[in-house]
Write a structure and sequence with these properties.
4-stranded mixed beta sheet, alpha+beta, single chain, Glutaredoxin
Length: 78
């Protein structure tokens, strides 16, 4: 089953880092996924996220305001 991964953020360095760690971890655990970068403030606010970057997996906020380590990310996605 394919997971929907959304990176919420305006494209800052931390947002780019979160996207990279997310993709690397997803590939490492052989996860089937589609990734979307959500950069519009109104869409980010609609998720209820107050600090970016944030990761949403299948509609659920998993991380907000920080970039987890590669190992932590693998556990979040597994």
């Amino acid at each position: 089953m394919m997971k929907k991964l959304q990176i919420l953020g305006t494209g800052c360095a931390k947002c780019q880092k979160l996207a990279a760690v997310t993709e690397d971890a997803a590939k490492a655990i052989c996860l089937s996924y589609a990734i979307e970068k959500v950069t519009e403030i109104d869409r980010i606010v609609a998720f209820g996220v107050m600090s970016t970057p944030a990761l949403v997996v299948d509609g659920q906020i998993k991380v907000a305001g920080k970039v987890p380590s590669f190992e932590d990310m693998k556990q979040l996605l597994a």
